[in-house]
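Input (structure):
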């Protein structure tokens, strides 16, 4: 039985870092829709290039495009082990489409974790964030431009990490993604972690919460099957 996790939270909450770590430790497939879009832009993909203007402004890419991307990845055989989603779903329409894909896959519980961080802290983290252009390593704020410690690639600011765009992305998050949290909140598999803590502490709490939520999800399913 696979384990499937959605890492929710505003830009800068550290969900990408936690999603990557958790997926690697558990041998799950990490799917970051932002990374997929940025890679597709680099490859000159037509649909992704059309999405680029919206991304550069901090706006959301349309649901149809995003759902098609995620559906294709999740239905591949290598996703059967389970996945960690980072950056999807961001709208209720995307969440509903994901539920449908989950029914088609019928493989393990869907755990949803919201990584919560106060807004002032998010702006501080994001406005100076440095990312490796080659491997995506996130060095956080306060790092000089130069070589990536992991792969030697160039450390750069993401085009959408300047302060105005950061504020727009946080506004978009509030408006479009908050209803997604409401969509999941009632479920036995929904958890909230305090993302303002040290990354190691967040990791520790997150792991315990995911284990607990997965067990709760299995119990709900067993009960449903029994009735
Ligand atoms: P991220 O790296 O997750 O912050 O995503 C960067 C940008 O890609 C976002 O600001 C959106 O423009 C776009 N994007 C990524 N995932 C989605 C999604 N699920 N729905 C709509 N737009 C998305």
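Output (sequence):
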């Amino acid at each position: 039985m696979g384990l499937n996790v959605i890492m929710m939270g505003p830009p800068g909450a550290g969900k990408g870092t936690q999603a990557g770590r958790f997926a690697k430790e558990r041998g799950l497939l990490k799917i970051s829709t932002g990374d997929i879009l940025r890679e597709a832009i680099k490859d000159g993909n037509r649909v992704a290039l059309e999405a680029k203007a919206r991304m550069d402004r901090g706006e959301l890419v349309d649901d149809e495009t995003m759902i098609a991307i995620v559906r294709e990845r999740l239905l591949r055989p290598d996703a059967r082990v389970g996945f960690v989603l980072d950056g999807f779903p961001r709208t209720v329409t995307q969440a509903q489409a994901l539920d449908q894909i989950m029914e088609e896959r019928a493989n393990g519980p869907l755990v949803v974790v919201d990584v919560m961080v106060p807004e002032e802290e998010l702006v501080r983290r994001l406005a100076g964030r440095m990312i490796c252009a080659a491997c995506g390593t996130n060095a956080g704020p306060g790092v000089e431009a130069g070589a990536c410690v992991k792969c030697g690639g160039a450390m750069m600011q993401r085009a959408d990490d300047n302060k105005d765009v950061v504020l727009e992305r946080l506004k978009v998050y509030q408006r479009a993604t908050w209803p997604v949290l409401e969509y999941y909140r009632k479920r036995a598999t929904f958890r909230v972690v305090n993302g303002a803590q040290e990354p190691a502490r967040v990791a520790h709490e997150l792991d315990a919460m995911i284990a607990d939520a997965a067990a709760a999800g299995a119990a709900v399913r067993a009960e449903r099957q029994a009735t």
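Notes: The first helix runs from residue 15 to 26. Residues 221 and 227 are 10 Å apart (CA to CA).
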